[in-house]
Amino acid sequence: MSSFGAVIVAAGKGSRMGTRESKQYLMLNEKPIMIHTLEVFNRLPWLREIVLVTGEGEVERCRRWIQEYRLDKVSAVITGGSERQQSVYQGIKQISSDWVMIHDGVRPFVTSEEIERCRDAALREGASVLGVPVKDTIKQVNGQGFIAGTPDRQSLWAVQTPQAFRLSDLLQAHQSAEQEGFVGTDDAMLVERMGVPVAVVEGKYSNIKITTPDDLEYAMFLQKRKGESRE
Ligand SMILES: Nc1ccn([C@@H]2O[C@H](COP(=O)(O)OP(=O)(O)OP(=O)(O)O)[C@@H](O)[C@H]2O)c(=O)n1
Ligand SMILES: C[C@](O)(CO)[C@H](O)COP(=O)(O)O
User: Where does the entry annotate site (Positions MEP for the nucleophilic attack) (predicted)?
Assistant: First the structure.
């Protein structure tokens, strides 16, 4: 099978969390959130390498955690950039596999089953992302705070990570975006604009991105449930 690597991005400031410590380093059940995430990927037998992208001044601490938790697939720990896109680009330059998965370090509840469905869809279709159909009605709102439009909910999905691509496609997409000054909010945007079809794979609503304080409470519930399901 083609070789797969993963880039776990954990170099953000976590401003929406409002904590002194960036959220990816916060303890969840006595273990840093990003370590929970790395452990999920490190358990995948078919994954060839993991590149961790972390914050300025955090490389040594992360390297100690990697040793402590025996994350033997981590091949490099590097610092990211001021934008998530820059962190991803730095990370994929360290990957030597044919395919790469990009995953947020603050999405610790993704399962190996979801990751493998994302992998298989990428191998089949060329690129793939995990996502879930939105449950709320989504509105476009204008600058005056009034509804400007209501997209058809049937076509709306909340897209998550991992997002999987051919390494060559993603490198080219990031290079083009950097040259053209284009900044997207996910990697699929950069590949879409290159005309590469991206398949959406239905994941789980529990694959949350820990972003604001209320997410932490839900994360503690999910972690407890995860622990209980192992007993
Ligand atoms: N310059 C950045 C920004 C974000 N990320 C990572 O990308 C993931 C998703 O980003 P987000 O949830 O927005 O994290 P932050 O940017 O830290 O959050 P905020 O926008 O609240 O500051 C996180 O794992 C974050 O650490 C990153 O590696 N480099
Ligand atoms: C990549 C992502 O997680 C997909 O939903 C999301 O776009 C990241 O956005 P953020 O503002 O960088 O958290």
Answer: 153, 209
